[in-house]
Amino acid sequence: MLEKLQQYYSTAKTLLQNTANLADLESFYREHLAPSGKATNWKREIGKVPVEERRAFGQAVNEVTSELLAAFETRRDLLKLKDIAETIAAQATDVTLPGRPLRVGGFHPSTLAVREVSGVFQRMGFMPFESAHVELDRNNFEYLNMPPDHPARDMQDTFYFSEDILLRTHTSSGQIHAMRRFAPEPLRIVLPGLCYRHENITPRSEIQFHQVEGLLIGPNVRMSDLKGVLLQFARQMFGPNQQIRVRGSYFPFTEPSVEVDIRCTLCSGEGCRVCKHTGWLELLGAGMVHPAVLRFGGYDPEKVRGIAFGLGIERLILLRHGIDDIRYIFQNDLRFLRQFGE
Amino acid sequence: MRVPLSWLREFVPIGTNVDELVERLTMSGIEVETIEYIGVFSPKVIVGQITTCTVSPKDPKVHILTVSTPEPITVVSAAPNVAHGSGRVAVALPGATIIDRSKPGFAVRDVVLATLYGVSSNGLLCSDAELGIGHDHSGIRFFGDDAQIGAPALSVVPIDPSWEADVVLHLSILPNIARCQSIIGVAHEVAAIFGLQVTDLRDDAGPSIQSGPLDPILDDAGNCRRFSVAEVSDVTVGPSPAWLQRRLILAGMQPKNNVVDASNYVMLEMGQPTHTYDATKLTNRVLSVGPSKSGEKLRTIISDEQAEPMVLPSGILTIRSGDDPVAIAGVMGGKETSVDAQTSEILIESANFDLITIRRSQKQTKLFSESSARFSRGVDPALTDRAIRRILAILRFNSPLLRVHSVGDSKNISLDDFSITLSVSQINTTLGTQWSLSEIETPLRRAGLRCKPGTAADTLDVWIPTSRGDIREACDLIEEVARLVGYDRIPETMPTDPIPQATMDRAIRVREKARDAMVRLGYQEIMTYTLSSREVETALFAAHGVPESWVALELLNPVTVERSIGRTSLLAGLLGTLGLNARHTNGCHLFELGLVIHPQSSPSGGVILPKEPVHLAMVTSGPLTAPSMHEPEPRRADIADVIETIREFAHLLHLDKIEFEPATAPPFQQGACGKIVREGQTFGYFGLIHPQVLGRFDLGGRMVAGAELRLDALLAHAKDHATFREIPRFPGIDIDIAIIVPEEMLAGTIVTTATAAGGDLVCGVEIFDVYRGAQIQAGQKAIALRLKLNARSRTMQMEEAIDLRQRVAAALRAELNAVVRE
Ligand SMILES: [Zn+2]
To answer: Is B243 an 8 Å CB contact of chain A?
Structure first.
């Protein structure tokens, strides 16, 4: 009997060593080690051997079973590793091959730039405010200190729907709406949006463009705050070492009126073609809100002062990306739009 | 405004550093558009060294030279003294402007690359005359050997005010610096900036121009503020002196005859436009100002002899002699009364008009002149008499015997200065500065404003002359101080007022979330024009017919017909963009978020402000991803993609209760169109774009699915936050039901019925198969439903699930007449 057991053990062990994969191993387990398997069955034989041999035989059966189980486990670990190795070998890839195309959405570059610019001002406490694109003449011009036939109207060619209804030429029309809504309370708003000019569409001019304007009204507002806010803006947008240059200009709705330049981002102020060799780039127009405009907005210019600024978003995009034709912006060629990848 | 620096120097002692002058003008708010360098001033006129000189085989008088600049260039020259020379010369390189000696009188020309006598000449050797530093044109200029090769020629010759060479600044005139539309005006500005003294014009001897027999009759409305005249005889009409012609040309005007030139010269110099009549052609030498009468005609000085005289717009301001209009006030004179070669007796008009009146005249007559350019921005009324005296002084160059017979000067305004009181603290609190009284006073004095200490301490009374029409109130003076002291002297501070309480408009915030959602859903944002055309907008109705209710807001003054109305939808722009991109990009998945313009009808019939609802529209067409080795033919977008996009969009924006219903609406095709409904309200349509519409957008043969939503209306229902629902902790059971229903039966109805019948235990009903075919009767379809059951607080039992399935089956049978397949 013991001899037969020894024979079984060596046969089973050979079978186990011959299993080639985890599936073979599983069937081996079922045949030999499972509750009704051959190794287990030997336990039933224990009762059949003579009493005096029973103890020794029983011990032998147990040894065989536990040794087979141990051998099974060793084999299983080995085959598992082998299996992983095979999987890995099968999954070897030429990583220089193209990947699987994805479908990714994207924002229009003007959206990105409007968000970036108005985001900088929002972090300085300027709240976004929007108003209508189709406007009354008085909100776009008159209340901004440009009565009919005022010379400053020459600066802005306008699309008219009727004698007194037009497409706004700047987001400044929203200043009036905001002032009238909040006066006499202090105001700190940013006005992003599309504006329109009656022009021919050329590489350098468009009939629509985005503006982001800022307006700050309060009892202690100063011209120096305008410089501080705009310096902060220039540094957030163009780098911590940016400088601004403020020079005189004219807008009917501000007094004083200034243009604000930044150091040319291409040549860092050395002078290049883009900055016309001045080292400076025009960034935006700004000034202190004209008392007449404050009055139209419902404020008392004796009690509050205001600062305002406005910049053209598309000009900024062209500058930043070195694009020389503004028509790309609203042509929406996907080969253009996809380059902004955000 | 063109400012020749030689002319400017006559009034203010500016230095020779042009760059510094330009920089300081720019900083103070006077924009220099371009700088014209003429003759020796041109940086492209440099010193060269002749290294070789050969005679042209084509003409023995012509030489072909190599000139070291120090780069060797080839130059062709016909100058007779070239042959002897091997020295240093003035070379004008291409791009330089030199004085043109091939024409009579003063003219300039640009040097260009040219092929001369068969040789390409890279420059031009200049004579003194061409350089504008002398009159010698017999040969080219030679410099001494100490002249550095390659240096600007200007560095080798001492600057002389008698030169014809010059630098001309082109200034851009913003409305607030109307005073800089004259040389003297610019001189005052330069003086204020640099702290220099202006040399004023000497008032030449002659009669003073004052009230007299010729006093013009001013208009009742007061649009003519002042009108001075002088009647002059013994004038000889002929060409102006050369120096005067040169200045006119440099300033951009063409010389005509001494009388017209004198008028133009004084306008350029002082800023006062004038007009000269042939006195003998006037029916009445006492002029009057008044509105034109209906149907009146005038032949202007620029109209040609044969043309019909222009019919004057009724009511524009005219200058009149007797009953006839003889000039459009401030804009243009009439031909019939103008000076000609035989004229010897003239009447000089020097008037001042209200700028708004002149602007209206310009607009109505579409006539623009140097005169109206000045009047339409505002001219100092103190100048009228002085301008006449200056004209007389200039005319005496040609007509030394001229005699002034009679004068006149009418005015309806005061020429007195008025005062504004400024306080130091007001300036400093406004600007955020700490400037002293003297720091403030100095620039004002330099700007020609008289200052006196005010009655209160630390105040200043500033007297504003009529020449500063731009200064009306304290804020204007504060600007004057700030720009002259320099904006760079204002510190940078951050606002000290607290940030106002107002919160961000919810509509803006949610709308931007909608834009984010569309990008997350894989769509590319586009931005098209708010202005569109009737043709494009109505193309959406190509299959359905334009509804009678369709209206658009139309521009009075479009630039092109393509951009002549406010867009009424976003889909037209999207399809147009798709059409453009389809030429090179197969798969396009685009969206636009923006306003459309919907006119509102006004009770009176006029145009009133339209509604500007914000819409969201999308189109999807072609492969969903780019074809590749992994998937050579990716799945193409269809209506189901749009359906799921809208559903997921609604989810991302926390919009509940969104349902879809079949619909018929342009521009979608019959049977593949739905509407987006929430609690009975329609918020938009989606579907496959009708092939006839696609044809109008160059998209024939493609499948395009799309949608347009009334976004702002829809987003009013969006919740700010998601509503949390407990995640089931116990296993549920999925159980299927197969039914047969008529073809018309909507999936939505089946799902609603099943959900209602199932009650609380049903947490979802999914349609996972729709089958039509062999085993099913025609006109019927088999639908497989999966009920997702979960008891939430405990494990779902199979018996319960089977019961529920039966309950749902019974409801489908009873309510929908469905055949349930067991
Ligand atoms: Zn640069």
So the answer is: no
The whole-model pTM stands at: 0.88
- Out of A104, A106, A198, closest to residue B559 by CB: A198
Residues A73 and A140 in one domain: no
CA separation for the pair B570, B686 (Å, rounded): 13
Superfamily of segment(s) B224-411: Phenylalanyl-trna Synthetase, Chain B, domain 3 (3.50.40.10)
Q: What is the dihedral of CA B297, B303, B306, B311, to 10 degrees?
A: -20
Which residue of B475, B492, B502 is in closest CB contact with A231?
B492
B60 touches chain A (CB under 8 A): no
| Yes or no, beta carbons of B519 and A105 under 8 Å apart | yes
Using alpha carbons only, what angle is made at residue B456 by residues B450 and B461, rounded to the nearest 5 degrees?
15
Give the structural domain span for A140: 109-340
Q: What is the pLDDT of residues B97-106, one digit of tens each?
A: 999 988 888 8
Residue entry with tokens 């890279």: B122
Q: Are B365 and B312 in contact (CB under 8 A)?
A: yes
Query: Within 13 A of B37's CA, how many CA atoms are on the CB side?
Result: 17
pLDDT digit string (tens) for B513-558?
Answer: 999 999 999 999 999 999 999 999 999 999 999 999 999 999 999 9
Q: How far is the CA of B20 from the centre of ligand 1 (A)?
A: 19
Residue among B174, B359, B361, B595 with most chain A CBs within 10 A, to mutate:
B174
Residues from chain A contacting residue B530 (CB–CB below 8 Å): 133, 167, 194, 196, 208
Condensed to tens digits (0 to 9), the pLDDT of residues B458-472 reads 999 999 999 998 999
Interface probe for B, chosen from A153, A247, A280 (most Cβ of B below 10 Å), is: A247
Distance from CA of B50 to the nearest CA of A (A): 32
- Choose the final residue of a domain: A65, A91, A117: A91
Residue-level pLDDT at A152: 77
DSSP helix/strand/coil, B705 = strand
Cβ contact B199:B490 at 8 Å: no
What's the pLDDT at B114? 87
Query: Is some CB atom of chain A closer than 8 A to the CB atom of B512?
Result: yes
The CA-based angle B489-B495-B498, given to 5 degrees, is: 165
Structural domains counted in chain A: 2
* SS3 of A103-163: CCCECCHHHHHHHHHHHHHHHCCCEECCCCCEEEHHHHCHHHCCCCCCHHHHHCCCCEEEC
**Residue A254 burial by Cβ neighbours in a 10 Å radius (0-12, 13-18, 19+):** buried
On whether ipTM exceeds 0.95, the answer is no
Scored b (16 or more CB within 10 A) or e, A163-201 reads ebbbbbbbbbbbbbbbbeebbeebbbbbbbbbbbbbeeb
Find, in chain A, the residue whose alpha carbon is nearest to that of B359: A149
Q: Which of B708, B713, B623, B640 is nearest to B668 (CA)?
A: B708
> Could you tell me the distance, in angstroms and rounded to a whole number, from the CA of residue B573 to the centre of ligand 1?
37
**C-beta of residue B389 within 8 angstroms of C-beta of residue B209:** yes
CATH fit for domain B733-821, picks 3.90.550.10, 1.10.8.60, 3.30.70.380, 3.30.70.580 = 3.30.70.380
Residue A342 reports pLDDT greater than 60 = no
Across the interface, of B30, B363, B589, the residue whose CB is closest to A103 is B589
